[in-house]
Write a structure and sequence with these properties.
16 strands; 31% helix; Heat Shock Protein 90; Ribosomal Protein S5, domain 2; alpha+beta; 2 domains; binds magnesium ion; DNA damage; binds adenosine-5'-diphosphate; ATP binding; nine-stranded mixed β-sheet
Length: 341
């Protein structure tokens, strides 16, 4: 075989495989873009488990007319300009990969309007080929429609599960994102069926209602509220009481600077904070939000960005561990905890 340069479309499809696994991953990327655009309301519509249609409509900043087609091109992002920006990236996206990747494995349409434009514009891409820009009626904000996911990648399509399973993945994804931003309202519909409806939640009791909707009434009824700040790290959220500890680590929601994480260092630090109050082999449940200077963390470690690299992992670990331990100690002082200095 001779060495050949791959066609552009194929390169995009290969890259898409890295981040776009199923309809839920499409929605994750689209909703994160809406959040990055400052949306206060996000409406998600799906058909046939998202395979036939994934649509996200937001009331965010919109995309300039001249940039609509660019948003579908590879490595086009408005979020970073220099390599130094990577150090302090505060947005969920920054690679400029999601839209072109999705475009290469679906039929996509973008309709958007910025606040200073009297009307909206739309642009589409089919099989990676971008269409002409056209005017379109739209309120300020953006609608992205993704149809027929993987229609041109049969090998990928084969891996999709039943409508029910894919819808389940989507619901869990939307729930995780809804937990990350209380101030934004979310609605998820499958056809005419409303699967999730989360009004904007400013006050703590409203936030607790959203947590109850997503994590369960049981959890919030058995939760301890935590708010702690020390040496550049902030933490707030809800920890389950030790009696609510679970057989599986299945109710663990951790957000760093608004980004959902599945991080081993974080999980083990929180466990350690519970070590004297829960039985061996049981797992804590929690919904926690941590804030830290973005320069203290490298989110560039993995394309799906579920894991991060902390500049000072030890510091973060100790902060988390001590915050949790303190809540347990204050709540159960003198009963279950051994005294420690
Ligand atoms: P990234 O999010 O990594 O920048 P994407 O491919 O997801 O890359 O999006 C490309 C660009 O399109 C973004 O940088 C942003 O400027 C614009 N964009 C995408 N979705 C939206 C949206 N819902 N609202 C406003 N701008 C958007
Ligand atoms: Mg993005």
């Amino acid at each position: 075989m001779s060495i050949r340069v791959l066609p552009e479309q194929l390169i995009h499809q290969i890259a898409a495989g890295e981040v776009i696994e199923r309809p839920a991953s499409v929605l994750k990327e689209l909703i994160e873009n809406s959040l990055d655009a400052g949306a206060k309301r996000i409406e998600v519509d799906i058909e046939e488990g998202g395979v036939r249609l994934c649509r996200v409509r937001d009331d965010g900043s919109g995309i300039e007319r001249g940039e609509l087609a660019l948003a579908l091109s590879r490595h086009a992002t408005s979020k970073i300009v220099t390599i130094d920006d990577l150090e302090r990236v505060g947005t969920l996206g920054f690679r400029g990969e999601a839209l072109p990747s999705i475009a290469s494995v679906s039929r996509i349409q973008l309709i958007s309007r910025t606040p200073d434009s009297p009307m909206g514009y739309k642009v589409g891409a089919d099989n990676g080929r971008v269409s002409e820009l056209e005017p379109a009626a739209h309120p300020v904000g953006t609608t992205v429609e993704v149809r027929d996911l993987f229609f041109n990648v049969p090998a990928r399509r084969k891996f999709l599960r039943t409508e029910r399973t894919e819808t389940g993945h989507i619901l869990r994804m939307v729930e995780r994102l809804a937990l990350s931003r209380f101030e934004t309202a979310f609605v998820l519909r499958a056809g005419r069926r409303v699967l999730g409806d989360y009004p904007a939640a400013a006050a703590r009791h409203e936030q607790e209602r959203r947590v109850a909707q997503i994590v369960g009434d049981e959890f919030i009824a058995n939760a301890l509220y935590l708010e702690h700040e020390s040496a550049g790290c902030k933490l707030r959220g809800w920890l389950c009481q030790p009696t609510f500890a679970r057989a599986q680590p299945d109710l663990q929601h951790f957000y760093l600077n608004g980004r959902m994480l599945r991080d081993r260092l974080v999980a083990s630090a929180i466990r350690l904070g519970y070590r004297d109050v829960i039985f061996h082999g049981r797992h804590p449940a929690f919904v926690l939000f941590m804030g830290i200077d973005p320069r203290q963390v490298d989110v560039n470690a993995h394309p799906a960005k579920l894991e991060v690299r902390f500049r000072d992992g030890r510091h973060v670990h100790d902060f988390l561990f001590r915050s949790v331990e303190r809540v347990m100690r204050d709540t159960f002082a003198g009963t279950t905890l051994r005294d420690r200095p």
